[in-house]
Amino acid sequence: MARAKTKTGTKAGKKSKTDTTVKIVSKQDQLIGLLRRPNGATIDELAKATGWQPHSVRGAISGALKKRLGLAVASERSEKRGRVYRIDRSAEKSTA
């Protein structure tokens, strides 16, 4: 009876020495990480980190983060940095 082999060519159930687990960080995850910083992030900083245009960053904040994920994104104007966005953890909607 032949045994099944995995894609790496090893017998099922055994780990190869070259198997590694890599977490792929999405651009949405990058946005959330930057917005959760105590200092928050500006549109320019978010655009530079993701490679998106500023209008795409604003759309992602409004659509994906606020509406779909229910995150409370607050913005305020700073004299030094301009408009700064951050996720307000105390005001996040609870997910049921």
Can you describe this structure?
This protein has 96 residues and is of the alpha+beta class. The chain has a domain at 27-91: Orthogonal Bundle (Arc Repressor Mutant, subunit A). Helices cover 33% and strands 15% of the residues. The protein has three helices and three strands. It has helices at residues 27-35, 43-50, 54-68, and strands spanning 41-42, 73-78, 82-87. It has a three-stranded antiparallel sheet with strand order 1-3-2. It starts with 26 loop residues before the first helix and ends in a 9-residue tail after the last strand. The relative contact order is 0.15.
Order of the strands making up the biggest sheet: 1-3-2
Radius of gyration: 20 Å
What is the helical fraction, as a range of percent? Answer: 25-40%
Instruction: Provide the residue-averaged pLDDT.
Output: 85
DSSP helix count? 3
> What is the CATH topology classification name of the domain at 27-91?
Arc Repressor Mutant, subunit A
Q: Write down the CATH class of the domain at 27-91.
A: Mainly Alpha
Query: What's the story with the biggest beta sheet?
Result: 3 strands, antiparallel
Q: What is the name of the CATH superfamily of the domain at 27-91?
A: Winged helix-like DNA-binding domain superfamily/Winged helix DNA-binding domain
What is the H-and-E element order?
HEHHEE
How many β strands by DSSP? 3
Fraction of residues in β-strands: 5-15%
